[in-house]
Amino acid sequence: MRIFLVRHGQTTANLSGVFYGSTDLSLSPQGIAQSQRVAGFLAGIAFGQTRVSALQRA
């Protein structure tokens, strides 16, 4: 069994050092680029199950 843990990309609140918990913030342009890179790394993997937060940044 392999488990992949992926954190969301950068948000504007991350830039200012704010911890925002479950507040629903979108990704910054840098965070979008980070997410696209991760998607490329994971594209060839067949997942049996996934768990994803309902928040925009995930």
In short:
With 58 residues, the chain is an all-alpha fold. It contains two helices and no strands.
Characterization of the model:
This protein has 58 residues and is mainly α. Helix content is 31%, strand content 0%. It is built from 2 helices and no strands. The chain has helices spanning 12-15, 29-42. The longest helix has 14 residues, at 29-42. It is globular.
The total strand number stands at 0
CA gyration radius, whole angstroms? 13 Å
* Overall average residue pLDDT: 88
Order of helices and strands: HH
Instruction: Describe the global form.
Output: globular
Separation of the first and last Cα atoms:
23 Å
Supply the key terms.
mainly alpha; 2 helices; 58 residues; 0% strand
Topology:
Elements: H1 12-15, H2 29-42
